[in-house]
Design a protein that fits this description.
Blueprint (H helix, E strand, L loop, with lengths): L1 H22 L16 E12 L2 E13 L3 E13 L6 E16 L5 E13 L14 E13 L4 E7 L5 E11 L2
């Protein structure tokens, strides 16, 4: 009887030693996000104005941004506008406002980028026009959510001018700094 118990114990110990092998599964690689919370990216924005197929103006804006944080760029002037009968006035902001946010993307070497652009300018006076009163303000606003490949210029979007033959293009190059 002791021999029988010893054999059963030996079989149980042998099976127990192989149990991890029986239940082991090959793990599938999980997609890796391209940025941790501490990752920092350099965003090089290029805003271009195109007239009749030719690039007539290009503006460059650069910012460094940590994953999950918001960044903003504000450039411009404050222009007075008459608001009341007693020549009261208030100021309006004219220029470029860029708001952006970087989030990790579950794609190879890319990021999720939210960009909001608000560009405004005072319309130039046309030849022979004698403009009085408040200025005419032209404005372009776009909001874009894009997946952007790292180290490659990416067209985020484009828009035609409402009252002309011009076109705006919004591009970005994202580079991981750390």
């Amino acid at each position: 009887m002791l021999d029988r118990i010893a054999r059963k114990a030996a079989v149980c110990l042998t099976l127990a030693s192989f149990m991890p092998c029986l239940f082991a599964q090959e793990s599938k690689p999980q997609p890796q996000s391209t940025g941790s919370v501490n990752s920092v990216y350099k965003l090089d924005y290029v805003f271009s104005e195109i007239q009749n197929g030719k690039r007539i103006n290009t503006r460059n804006y650069t910012t460094l941004l940590r994953v999950g944080e918001r960044g903003s760029i504000r450039l411009g002037n404050r222009v007075p506008v008459v608001t009341g009968a007693n020549n009261a006035f208030q100021y309006i902001d004219i220029g470029v406002n860029v708001d952006c946010r970087v989030e990790p993307a579950i794609v190879d070497s890319g990021i999720a980028l939210f960009t909001s652009v608000d560009m405004s300018s005072v319309a130039p006076e046309q030849p022979g026009e004698n403009r009085t009163g408040n200025p005419i303000v032209r404005q372009t606003k776009v909001q874009m959510d894009n997946i952007v490949s790292l180290d490659k210029k990416t067209l985020l979007g484009s828009a035609d001018e409402v009252d002309g033959t011009g076109r705006f293009e919004f591009e970005v190059t994202a580079t991981r700094v750390r």
